[in-house]
Amino acid sequence: MIEYARQNMCDFYLSPAQPAPARLDDFNVFKKGNATFTYGNLYPYEMYPEVEDASNVYYNLINFRDYRPETDSWKSKVVEDWNSDETVAWIYDCAITTHGFNELDVPFHNFRISGHELKNKRREEIVDMMLHPHVDNEMSRRIAYTVFDRLHCRLSEEIRQQSVLRYPEQQTFLDLDCHGNRGYHSDYKPNDISLMSAADSGDDHEDVFRIEPASPACSYGSDGSKSGDEDDKKKPFKRPPGRPKGSIKKDKRPRSVSVPQFLRDLLLDERFCPSIIKWEDHSQGKFRFVKPDEVAKLWGQMKQNDNMTFEKFSRAMRYHYQHMVLVSVPTARLVYQFGPKGPDFKTNNPNFVKVKSELENPSYS
DNA sequence: TCCCAGTTTCCTGTTT
DNA sequence: GAAACAGGAAACTGGG
Questions:
Q1: Does any strand C atom come closer than 7 Å to the Cβ of A316?
Q2: What is the spatial distance, in angstroms and rounded to an integer, between the CA atom of A124 and the C1' atom of B6?
Q3: How confident is the model at residue A257, as a pLDDT?
């Protein structure tokens, strides 16, 4: 039916030569007179009770006119090299084919951009692009999050493949795929590459965390000096403070995400908020660690550092007090606050509180 | 080469 | 007493 509408009705009633308002009128006339059945099939009322006119269908049909997902050339290219057609085709494959979203809910025309532009979009920018006046905001946000995640999974995979080609003997955090993280035994799947997006430089630390306690080359005392006396042999290996020497320099990569950005990303991600971290007072940027060790573990996972603890992580957080990126919240334990120089943490749904319609239609969440 | 920002580790002391 | 917090110190990295 959709195909029929796209190929016939749309072409007939929505001539490209006509100005948009006229075409919308035509479509409404068409809908009222003849095509209620079609309209009902495109937007089943039980799923979209808020849809009361044909404009939604109209706008999306318009989108289809501009959009021809015929190409699959994106499959053999890196995101960076996609042209606008390939970007749109990938969006279709990702959102519709793979994740089963309704094709009429995706404003494809907003995604007629190059892969280079797409990969530089932030999560909220993707959300903005996905928003459409005639599509439910929560639905758009859900699609956008899916698209964003899949995009960064793909980018991660591209980097991983390049990394394997360049350093086949080395294992980096990028070996963590999008469906589970090697060595991470938790219910949480930190597959949101936004959390890792710019963390490529983190793999410079990979050697850091591979120091074996028995390694003669690493027999440093706690004061950082070499020592080989009996006491040190008895004591378990104690890593000296700071980053050990010997990290291999590689290609220049973007600087890692900072601790405040990492926290912000967790708080804006439904998979982590409110299960392990949540907003205490979103208007003030206050948040609470629900499972501080899990957050630290995620940070360590991202940094390829199995030794990360909340104690160390919180020290990194406290470092940001001095620049007012974070501010302390006295008296409240495990509660911190973004400062005036902190990252943008705006969201219209802190802690992902279910809206009424979602509660009434749990199958749609 | 130097400096700075950011991070990690260790540590001591304080507060809850 | 344990956990959380605060912050100094040192060592390191990447970037300007």
A1: no
A2: 25
A3: 79
For the purposes of burial, counting CB atoms within 10 Å of the CB of A201, is it exposed (0-12), middle (13-18) or buried (19 or more)? middle
Residues A303-328: tens digit of each pLDDT:
877 788 898 899 899 888 888 888 88
- Chain C: nucleotides below 7 Å from protein CB are 4-15
Of the candidate ranges A57-66, A176-185, A251-260, the one whose mean pLDDT is the lowest: A176-185
Question: Which residues on adjacent β-strands are paired with residue A73?
Answer: none
Enumerate the domain spans of chain A.
2-66, 73-166
Looking across all nucleic acid strands, the nucleotide with the smallest C1' to CA distance from residue A245 is: C12
Q: Which residues contact A31 (CB under 8 A, 6 or more apart)?
A: A38, A39, A53, A54, A57
Fold of A73-166: DNA polymerase; domain 1 (1.10.150)
Whole-number distance in Å between A211 CA and C2 C1': 31
Where on strand B do bases come within 7 A of a protein Cβ?
6-11, 16
